[in-house]
Amino acid sequence: MEAALELLQQPVFTLNLKPDSGGSLDFGIVDHSKHKGTLVEAKANSEIASWTVDAVTLSAGKAKVTQKMLFDTGGGDTMLADGKFVTDYWKQVSGNMYQDGSWIFPCNSKLPDVKLKIKCTVFERENYLNERLRDWNFGIYHAQAPLEECLPKSIFERLMTAMVDPTRGLSEHDSLPMLNAKTGERLMAIPSPNVLRFSRSRFRALIAEADPCLSKYGFEDGTAVTGSIVIGAEGANSKVREYLLGPEEAALQQLPLLGIGAVESLPADISRKIREINDLYFVSYHPEGVCAFMALHDVPDSNKPETWKWMYSLTWNDKAVKREPPVGPEAIKQEWIFWAEKLAEPFRSAYLAPLPDATLWCDRLAEWRTIPWDNQNGRVTLAGDAAHPMTYHRGQGLNNAIHDALNLCNALDEHHAKGVPISKALAVYEKEMQDRGRAAVISSGENSLMVHDWEQLKKSPIFTMGLGPLGKKGRD
Q: Which of 34, 35, 16 is nearest to 25 (CA)?
C-alpha cells in the first residue's frame, strides 16, 4: 500500500462487501454511489498492527458489548468482537453449530441485527398506542433509503404490512394523477416510483415493536426527568421549540387556507370507479379554488369494494374565495357539501356519499419557517415537524422528517461511538437540517397557495418539481 501511495488520488482504500453477491475493493477513491447516508470517521489505534477502533458499542437482540473493535480487512470477518458477545449472538440463531473455529448456520436462519446502542427514552403524549381517533395516511417519495437505514431489519422487512393495501406491492410506474376537478380531464401525472403509502396507525404500531416500552410521561404535573440531551420531535406545536425560542418566535404562522378531512368507506360501485382512476391516489384542482385529494386508506377485503376506506381532503383559500370559516359540525358539513357539489363525477358522488354520518375534521393550515436556535451547548435540539412544520400539498413533511432521523442518528453516533463533542456533532446536523427544512417549508407554503389559484396552478412547485426533494424534477 505504501509503495502505491503516490499513484493514488487519496490515501484511502474501501471495501464494499455484499450479501450473496460479489463485492469490490477500491484504492485511492471513495465511491459515494456504493453507500447510503453520511460517512463518518473513527480514529484508529496505531499501537498495534491491526485496524483497531476504541469504544465501539454493539447490540444484536439480547447481546450487547462496548469494547475495542478489530476490523480485519484480510480475512472473512470484517469486525472481530468480544468472545462473549459473539457467543450470545449465535445463541439467538436457530440451528447454529461451532465447528473448527467457525460458526455454521442453516441458510434459512434469521440473523439478529447488529446495532450501535444509544440509550434513549421516548415520551409519548398518548396513553396508549393510537389512542387518537383521527387516522390518515402518508406517502414516502424520496426517503425510502434513509427509512431503511433507520429501522431494524426485522421491522423493515415487514413494512408492506403497514401499507394502505398490503397486497398491492410496489411499482416503478406509480404516479400521482392531477386532474381538473370541474371537468375530470387529466392535467398531468407526477411520477412517484415505488411510493410507500402507509396507514398512520398501522405504521406506528409496526415501528413501536422496535421499542415496545413507549410510555406516557406527564410533565405538566411537575414531573422532572434527567437526561444528557433532549430531542423535540413532538410535532408542529412543539413545546421544546417554544422553550428554545420563546412563545413569539416559535409560534406557527397561520395561512389563509382551510382544510376538511375524513376517512370513510363508499358504496361498492363508487369505490370501484374511484380506484379505476388510480388504484392508490389522485388530486384534482377546481378553477374556483378548491383542491380535492383522495387516497386509498385501507383494503380489508380486496374483493369487496364496499369495505375499502378512503382518505379525503378538501382545501381552499378562504381569504381569496371570501367565505367565513365553518364553526361546528353542522357548518363544517355544509362547507363540505358546498365544495363537493362543484366537483365532476365520480368525485362529486364520492364526496357526498359518506354524508350525513361522516366524521369530518376542519383545520387551518400553518407553517413555521425554520430559524437557528441555541441548542444549549448540544443539550437540546429539534427534528421533524417540531423543526420545520409545513403544508402538505407536496407531501414533503414526513420525507424531510425521515432524513432528519437518519442524520440525527449519525450525529449521535459521532458523539457516542467516536468521541466527537456533542455540540460539534449537533451543529453539523442542525446546519444541514435547518437549511433544508426552511427551504422545504417556504416551497411547500408557496405551493399550497398557488395550487388554489387557477392562474398560478401550473407554475406551482408540484407541477414544476413533482414530489421529489427540492432541486429534483419529476413529471411526464
A: 16
pTM of the model: 0.75
**In 234-356, which ranges are E strands?**
253-265, 281-285, 290-298, 309-316
Cell numbers that stand for 66 in this block: 462496548
Higher-pLDDT residue of 176, 468: 176
* Other residues' Cβ atoms within 10 Å of the Cβ of residue 472: 10
CA 266 to chain centre: 29
Q: Are strands 281-285 and 175-180 parallel, antiparallel or unpaired?
A: parallel
Which residues lie closer than 8 Å to 251 by C-beta, 6 or more apart? 368
Rounded to 5°, the CA angle 306-128-266 comes to 10
- Contact indicator for 171, 158 with CB cutoff of 8 Å: no
Beta strands in 145-289 (DSSP E): 175-180, 186-191, 196-199, 230-232, 253-265, 281-285
The β-bridge relationship of strands 230-232 and 380-382 is parallel
Contacts of 443 (CB under 8 A, 6+ apart): 394, 396, 461, 465, 470
Identity of the residue numbered 58? L
Q: Give 214's pLDDT tier (boundaries 50, 70, 90).
A: very low
Task: Report CA torsion sign: 17, 412, 150, 173.
Answer: negative
Pairing of strands 196-199, 186-191: unpaired
307: Cβ contacts below 8 Å, ≥ 6 apart: 265, 299, 300, 301
* Nearest to 449, CA basis, from 216, 222, 256: 256
Buried residues in 263-300 as b, exposed as e (16+ CB within 10 A): bbbbeeebbebbbebbebbbbbbbeebbbbbbbbbbbe
Give the mean model confidence (pLDDT) for residues 10-37.
69
Taking the alpha carbons at both ends of the chain, their separation in whole angstroms is: 50
Predicted confidence band at 474 (pLDDT cuts at 50, 70, 90)?
Answer: very low
Q: What Rg value do the Cα atoms of the chain yield, rounded? A: 26
CA distance 421 to 425: 6
Q: What are the grid coordinates assigned to 469, written together?
A: 426533494
